[in-house]
Amino acid sequence: MNIAYTMAPGRGDMDLILASLAAELAASGLRCCGTVQINTVNPAYGTAGPCDMNVRVLPEGPVLRISQDLGPSARGCRLDPNVLETAVGLVAERLAQGADLLIVNKFGKHEAEGRGFRDVIAEALAMDIPVLVGLNALNREAFERFTEGLAIPLAPETAALRTWVDSVTAPLTQRAGARPAQAMS
To answer: Which of 3, 39, 84, 103 is least surrounded by CB atoms within 10 angstroms?
Structure first.
């Protein structure tokens, strides 16, 4: 089972790292599916208020707004579960068509409760497709139960993530007759 996760301390840092990695991997010819999160400033609230959360379904989109606007002082979860499930369905379709890597921007509350991308992650692992997940401290215990402690922690740095991806996808690209990802230029 090839599954790894990364955790970044700053608000939105993990999203930027995973989006950068996905772009780099796509440019090198790796078939990635999954989602990366794109946060944008909500003009109504400015930089101090809640941002708008979007996910880009890999590799080429669409981009879906996964947050609901509950107002500037709302403290509850802003995730739109219906849009999340739309993203899950799109990713599941693309996974069924074949991929070299699944990237899930976040193993969040829905995954911790058995919903969201949880089944897609399990399906990728059953298909022997490596999985890279963003994780926060709130859901770490549930993630570790889900992966039975077998997930590999990775530093929240594009280079560290790329090294792991290269190590788990090189055998796939060699079997397919392509050069290993790290040898590509």
So the answer is: 39
